[in-house]
Design brief:
By secondary structure, the chain is mainly alpha-helical. The protein has two domains: 223 residues, 3-Layer(aba) Sandwich (Rossmann fold), CATH 3.40.50.620; 84 residues, Tyrosyl-Transfer RNA Synthetase, CATH 1.10.240.10. The chain has 14 helices and five strands. α4 crosses α7. Bound molecules: iron/sulfur cluster. Iron/sulfur cluster binds next to α10 and α12.
């Protein structure tokens, strides 16, 4: 079985956009690949805003993932900093990575503009750490959206350079191009995201879902109940496609002939989302009530990941001619 590696920033409770995109994709990969899923808490430290809630964000995100269907028996799920060998490999990779490769990364330039007060080394070295994340576990396949392809290409270049300088250790990770559905937020303009406060959490109660859905923007042409609508440009209709698939044709034609009002349409959507996510909410509540469950899952994941990591670091040191501690005695002899 080929090995998939994927890392995710800890973003706390997950929203519908995460669920329909990343989470469902990760669940589907579990049966086909040997999957390693990592919560990249060290990467989160390159920006300052998430530090206050970092621990809680990791807990809530992992709880959502497990309740949604990530199976810790099938996949390794762990926190990046729990396997310290990644820092070691990051340092060693930094010796084979030309600075010019890192300075040309577009996301680095964007981050410099976004946080000129905090242009830390971690921002420049981000792709090196990302490469270490993948290579430490000899990840062969990395699910990415098209926008992340340049990062993966850089990871491949770093790995290739290491292999050519010191000898083969790492497979070059291949992109598994994944087209995540674009889920617009409740504002109908931006992608659903916590940064834009336009999201619905998957753990939200039916009442909270209803309240959030009722705030959503719809077709701006429907100012009165009697106006005919354009479902194709309406965000509520887009969500119906995922949560009310059996009735989308009917909703579209009722919208066009003004047979249904937006309030009614939104209530219907809120009910569909609530009922679709009900099994998730139930499982989440059960897992949350188990004392230490998340801690144990993450500890088991870290142990399994670390066993792979230790072996990789041993190979790397061997190739780089670094002296292992136990070898010192033999040299003296
Ligand atoms: Fe959108 Fe539904 Fe209103 Fe049509 S009726 S504009 S699909 S919310």
């Amino acid at each position: 079985m080929k090995r998939v590696f994927s890392g995710f920033r800890p973003t706390g409770k997950q929203h519908i956009g995460n669920y329909l995109g990343t989470i469902q994709n990760c669940i589907s990969l579990q049966d086909e690949y040997d999957c390693i899923y990592c919560v990249v808490d060290i990467h989160a430290l390159t920006t300052l805003e998430s530090i206050e809630s970092l621990r809680e964000d990791i807990y809530e995100m992992v709880l959502d993932w497990l309740a949604a269907g990530i199976d810790p028996q099938k996949s390794i799920l762990f926190v990046q900093s729990h396997v310290p060998q990644v820092m070691e490999l990051h340092t060693l990779f930094s010796m084979v990575t030309p600075l010019s490769w890192l300075l040309r990364v577009p996301t680095f330039k964007e981050k410099v503009k976004m946080q000129p007060h905090n242009v830390n080394y971690g921002l420049v070295g981000y792709p090196v750490l990302m490469t270490a994340d993948i290579a430490l576990y000899k990840g062969e396949i990395v699910p990415v959206g098209e926008d992340q392809l340049p990062h993966l290409e850089l990871a491949r270049e770093i790995v290739r350079r290491f292999n050519s300088l010191y000898g083969f250790v790492f497979p070059e990770p291949q992109a598994k191009l994944t087209s995540f559905p674009l889920i617009l937020g409740l504002d109908g303009i931006q992608k659903m995201s916590k940064s834009y406060n336009n999201y619905i959490e998957i753990a939200a109660s039916p009442q909270e879902i209803l309240e959030r859905v009722m705030t959503a923007f719809t077709d701006p042409a429907r100012r009165y109940r009697s106006d005919s609508g354009h479902p194709d440009i309406c965000n509520i209709f887009c969500l119906h496609k995922f949560f009310t698939p059996a009735r989308v044709d009917e909703i579209a034609s009722e919208c066009r002939r003004a047979g249904i009002g937006c309030v009614e349409c939104k209530k219907m959507l809120a009910e569909s989302i609530s009922s679709t996510l009900e099994p998730f909410r139930e499982k989440r509540a059960i897992l949350a009530s188990k004392p230490n469950y998340i801690t144990e899952v993450l500890a088991d994941g870290a142990n399994r990941a670390e066993a792979i990591a230790k072996e990789t670091i041993r190979e790397v040191k061997e190739k780089m001619r670094l002296l292992q501690r136990v070898q010192l005695e033999h040299i003296r002899d």
